[in-house]
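Handoff note, outgoing to incoming analyst
You'll be picking up this chain. Sequence as last confirmed:
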Amino acid sequence: MELHQLKIFVAVAEEKHLTRAAERVFSSQPAVSAQVKSLEEQLGVRLFDRTPKGMELTKAGEQLLERARTTLAAASDMLASAKSMQGHVVGELQIGTNSDLDFLRLPDIIQTLNAAHPQLKLSVVASMSTDILRDVRKGQLDSGFFFGPNPLGGLHCEPLADIQTAIVAPAAWKDKITQASIEDLAKLDWVYTRETCPFYLLKEELFADSGLSPNKSIFVDTEENIRAFIRSGTGLSLLRKDDADKAEAEGWGIRWQGECPRCPLSVAVLANRISEPEIKAWLDALGPVWQMGSDAANSVAG
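Most recent structure output, in case you need it:
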């Protein structure tokens, strides 16, 4: 029995799907299936029932899953201990970013990290929250920032802030937006993100009680594009409050004065990597910059 087989066992148990598990461990579906079968033969028990809904753990599988996780965690701790004996942290971390680097305070984080661990380097990858969570879980990213809740298992998530939001319309729409009701807003042209984006759900939340469906005139995939379409007069959208402040200060946007939902900002790493020196150094650098664990981290207007 090999650690790689245990990683596959845990991946299949969490994903409940051979193809998704294969993507997560950078393998093929037939190879994953063969490894599961081999592990079952070595253990002498059936770990999964193959059902139309996917791979379901058997009673034996449920009992052995935690043992597999414990074994993998112990192996990870041993590797982390060996690395810590070197006396310094060396390597490179791939970090997924879902927003402006200044907003994420990444320059300050890097400065803090460089001061403590000059041989640990960061490589920054721009992406979207849902993609970042998926890529961290699959091991394609070492860590990443994300908005909204985390729906995936196997991740350790640290809350950073509760972000205030605001509806911003083109400056020329001042007469339309200033005293607008929710019903009025729904009739206007909206710049929307795709359904997997947490800000999509926040916008839907605005209209949930009224039962209205906003006029979704265009869909985009980045905050930069949202701002560009508001600036061009195409439509209104939901932005971070700091973006709304900037829009009004620069004269290209006007803010709706009604109440808007908040959106949590967090950072994710694989739960079984939490003790690795590189990951620990990264999270330690985040702490003082984002004041993690303090009241100040609970509400950020930008």
